[in-house]
Amino acid sequence: MSKPGTKPMDYEGILAQIAQEIAAQTDRGTPADYIPQLACVDPAHFGMAVALADGRVFTTGEADTRFSIQSVSKVFTLSLALGRFGDRLWSRVGREPSGLPFNSILQLEHEQGIPRNPFINAGALVVTDAILAGHAPREVLGELLRFIRACAEDEDIHIDDAVARSETRHGDRNLALAHFMAAHGNLHHVPALTCGTYFHQCAIEMTPRQLAMAGRFLVGASGFPSQISTGSVRRINALMLTCGHYDGSGDFAYRVGLPGKSGVGGGILVIAPGRASIAVWSPGLNAQGNSALGTLAVERFAQKTGWSVFG
Ligand code: DON
């Protein structure tokens, strides 16, 4: 929305410039290789979508190609868990940045099996374990898909079983985190059940357009779907800003200045509060396991629009 007398933002032009800049990059990062099914994804892919509060959607590149959302799914499970348990959730998981890799086990020993935040793997396992209470994995995954489809207003969103199986076969590290938390009484289901559900939630595949549409419930703009309370929207955005990129969260906040959640599939969901939901996909990762060129693309987008939560 532009004020009278100001030039409307040329979103199409901005996205075209970004796509050009991304295409020219030679160092594209490395796709995740610890989930074999993701290792074979071509790092040349790039797609981006912006869903604006006024209902317009702008895209560039492969905005309609599906990718594995992986840890971006943690935003949706956290939303479900906060809706169901409210502040009680925080007795099982913290709200502090970890400063450590997403799959680290180090702090868990010092902190008696209570993970630092809901976005590192240990924290996300606790969140999934919480929403499993009283439900079979199939029901939880069904509820999660219904929630995401409702947010995106798109029924064509599914789990890629090959990716889920691939991670299940190589899931020792997450199983170790789950067992460790079980030893501290912070896992209420057997590790294989919680991990199995978690691997399937991570294997949801979406296009950048679908992800941008789904993220609108976190923008807090009238006219967008409002699946959760305003208070929860603000808190989830705060957690995305401080913890959404693991040990790269500070750098992401510095470069982009907007809350974001990454996944090892190379996707990032970025929220510009009151303005837009933005999704980008580029499979090559940086050293922290976040999309290297996806970060560059949203950094450029924030520079060109002037959008930032820091004024
Ligand atoms: O648990 C894992 O390792 C993956 N399913 C998800 C990790 C992830 O996406 C980290 N994000 N950048």
Notes on the protein architecture:
The chain has 311 residues and is α+β, with helices and mostly antiparallel strands. It has 13 helices and 8 strands. The strands form 2 sheets. It has a 5-stranded antiparallel sheet, with helices on both faces. A hairpin with a 3-residue loop joins strand 7 and strand 8. Helix 1 runs antiparallel to helix 13, helix 5 packs across helix 8 and helix 6 packs across helix 10. It is globular. The mean pLDDT is 96.
Any low-confidence stretches, pLDDT <50, length ≥5? none
Biggest beta sheet summary = 5 strands, antiparallel
Question: Helix coverage percent of residues?
Answer: 40-55%
The backbone outline, from C-alpha atoms, is globular
Give me the strand/helix succession.
HHEEEHHHHEHHHEHHHEEEH
The fraction of residues assigned to DSSP E strands is 5-15%
Distance between the termini: 17 Å
Question: What labels describe this entry?
Answer:
311 residues; single chain; three-stranded antiparallel beta sheet; five-stranded antiparallel beta sheet; alpha+beta; binds 6-diazenyl-5-OXO-L-norleucine
Question: In summary, what is this structure?
Answer:
It contains 13 helices and 8 strands. By secondary structure, the chain is of the alpha+beta class.
Secondary-structure topology with pairs:
Layout: H1 11-23, H2 36-39, E1 47-52, E2 57-61, E3 67-68, H3 73-85, H4 106-110, H5 121-131, H6 137-152, E4 158-159, H7 161-169, H8 172-183, H9 191-202, E5 204-206, H10 208-214, H11 230-243, H12 249-255, E6 260-262, E7 267-272, E8 276-281, H13 292-305
Antiparallel strand pairs: 1-2, 1-8, 3-5, 4-5, 6-7, 7-8
Helix pairs in contact: 1-13, 3-5, 5-8, 5-9, 6-9, 6-10, 7-9, 8-9, 11-12
6-diazenyl-5-OXO-L-norleucine binds next to loops.
